[in-house]
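Archive entry. Fields below.
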Amino acid sequence: MVIERDELALYLHIPFCRNKCAYCNYYSIRAGRKKQALFVKELTKEIKSRADNLSAKVTSIYIGGGTPSLLTNAFLAAIMNSIEENYFLAKNSEITLEVNPLDLQKEKTLRDWQQLGINRISLGVQSLKEDELNLLGRDHGINEAKKALAILAQADFNYSVDLISALPGQQASDYLRSLELVLNYSPKHISSYNLQIEPNTELNKLWQTGELLEISEEEDAKAYEKTREILTVKGYRHYEISNYALPGYSSHHNLAYWQFRPYAGFGPAACSFDMKKRRCNIADLNIYLASAEKESSEIARIDFLTIEDLIKDYIFTGLRLTAGISKKDFATLFKRELKDIYEREINDLVGQGLLIETPNKIRLSNKGLLLANQVFTVFL
Amino acid sequence: MSVNKIRNFCIIAHIDHGKSTLADRILELTNTIEDREMQEQVLDNMDLERERGITIKAQAVSLDYKGYRFNLIDTPGHVDFSYEVSRSLAACEGALLVIDAAQGIEAQTVANIYLALEHDLEIIPVINKIDLPAADVKRVKEQLLELGIDPAEALLASAKEGTGVEKILDEIITRVPPPAPEEDLPLKALVFDSLYNSYQGVIAYIRVMTGKVVPGEKIFLMASEKEYEVDEIGIFTPEMKKTSQLKAGEVGYLMAGIKDVRNCKVGDTITTANNKAAEPLPGYQDVKPMVFSGMYPTDNDDYEVLKEALEKLQLNDAAFTFEAETSAALGFGFRCGFLGLLHMEIVQERLEREFNINLIMTAPSVVYQLTLENGETKEIDNPAEFPAPSEISTIAEPYVTATISLPEDYIGSVMELCEDNRGQFSDMTYIDQNRVQLQYEMPMSEIITDFFNQLKSKSRGYATLDYEPLGYQESDLVKLDILVNKEKIDALSIIVHRDKAEVVGRELLKKLKDIIPRKLFAVPLQAAIGNNIVAREDIKARKKDVLQKCYGGDVSRKRKLLEQQKEGKKRMKQIGSVDIPQEAFLAVLERGNGD
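PREDICTED_STRUCTURE:
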């Protein structure tokens, strides 16, 4: 596959939630319509002001957060318009909206989004067990999730479902039941993550008190292997460590991160990458709103990446894809041979059965997928 | 200045009772230090001292007040340094006894009061922190009475707010006696502390008891039997300020090109080489380390760096000893001796901070006296060096008298704790209506595990501990070996009482199981006495280790997380194919999480 590095992926961070999930440490706050309006105004300004530096062809847009689905159609329309006015948007661009099931309880809602150009939905289901949803601090129940799934299935929409495994005290079978239930609605894409207890979350506080049950590495591994088995049988392709898609439905946007393509992020906490540096807007809505007329450096942290940083990032993001890293691609991009830098490391990992090397590529083995950090750290 | 105008005094206080703050106020009030130079707790020089709120090295400062010369000697505030405290007291005629009005008198303070009385010091009780809502002056006065100190003589102060400080200074003039004027006798100067500086060599902190000393004079150190020529003498203001002489009654510093603190130890007597005093000052002891631990660089390449760092530290700390040792598991390192656990922690922290060396330290050990079957006797401070059980006839271990003062509500749980740690009850007295002092005879080895932490947690922080050596007693002890992946890790061996061996072994393995990171293969852990396996646990093979969620653009952050994971591995010691983190070697310290 030829990777087009003059394509651009756009990410929009909508920093609002009705409720903070217990596991989530992404930046979001509760805010009323008035604040949302201020934000949308500022966001469209950022989209416009940075357009001068971003002349490439936009091939995907991802409206994430936060809970972007709680924005009114008028707000979403304003955002979409500002992109269309300022960027060259390719035909067939993938335009994804991240959705909380509570916001998709009527068929009309989906039609309205479609009208705005949204052609892909990422639905945050996480689990179809009520007690698990409570533990995760989700604000919806399984009935709302099923309703949203039914609407998407009915419309045969291009949509993805997020599920979380490896909850405290969870057996692999608990998780697999949710997965089987979701499969009844034939999503085109499934993202299956294990729970990470992140700092500054409600779940972490509970974890520190020692009141939560153990998270079993064995059950986690079992759930992972079974997921792969079940989904493969159903025709899904396991294309990234945590992602599965029916043929033709891989997330074009997320592939930008793993294939080392440039992306531009707008809104607080959103990150951008132009093959040289990474820029992340400061995760604070008030700073974001106050900096309307100021230089971007006041709202963003910028990491200038050395060639070594770039190589490390390229390897550990690229190896996330089951297709692996192409040696030729690496050589084209960095003007150096992969094996000249990492011969010993690659041989060791192949010897341990964690990595597979072919004449053209390196990729994680099945065992390596489960122990990917052990592989990545070797390259750092 | 006439000897009659000199007042030498120290401050006795428990940690946190406000000693350093009071010293700061005194410096301010006597204009010894300009406001702009004022830094909280001026006398505590090391960062470590300021952070922990404790004094490790003795400090001295000369100040002028109403025509008098005050020499304030700040003493270390921890049981590990009680010998240094006694030498500081010997340099004074008076002591301010600072007591926190809310906390009352603590066990260790009591020990220091007795020490001060032994040295015939005039004691001025100062009840501090009277501004606190919980202050209970009446109770403190009752405690003083119990100790045979007239509560009517107590002064009230709040060093923090500066109230009562002037009164204290006035009372020092009237109540602390001036030194006896004995200038005509041969020189006797007490070394009450010393420090090393790479330019000037050893700087001795001295109190001249009789005679006088001038630059250029040949001096003789009576304990180390070394002769030097005095380069410089002076006083502390608190910076060092040269003077032309130091005479009987005065406190100051002396430099004589001494290159090693071990030749100028705390408690030594300095006299004139050609007019030697007949007798040294009383009370000199060659301080011996009580606690030993192995110190190994995490990275073997750092061995030389560690050696140099230890040499530098020793220049400044005569109580700290080290010698090279090797461990089958840890490679080349050093056996280090310390006065106690705090002393050990301080050395470890200084090495990591000042010299930036990653260290593996093995669990601290006391010195055991062994009698072998062949009649030979041996002193061993490293469990790894214990002979096979069949070769040992008897083992004796050091005991201490532990004095614990605590509110009576916690007597039950604290007595239970002492008994769990093989303590034998010897005495209980009431300090006041609700504060009790318990005495136990305990093996020192039990004290140097996490006894102190458990004592604090069982008494909600209210109990205080003081201990002094009591000599050796025979005990039924065994060496417990730990095997990781079937390989004996000598640095993890510990000495335990036979009756506790199995329980300790099991607990230790459970902890190691959590501490030692899982590998791609299963790793058995075993505890053994000789060839007899008494406990076993298995570290399961690593099944899954993957950062699953990785989208969103902040790839730099994800890389940093992975780099941290890698960095964590570097701080571990690779033994065979297993990585053992530093905590594993100290896991033995934290016995049973309460129960």
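CURATOR_NOTE: Confidence is low (pLDDT under 50) at residues 38-43 of chain B.
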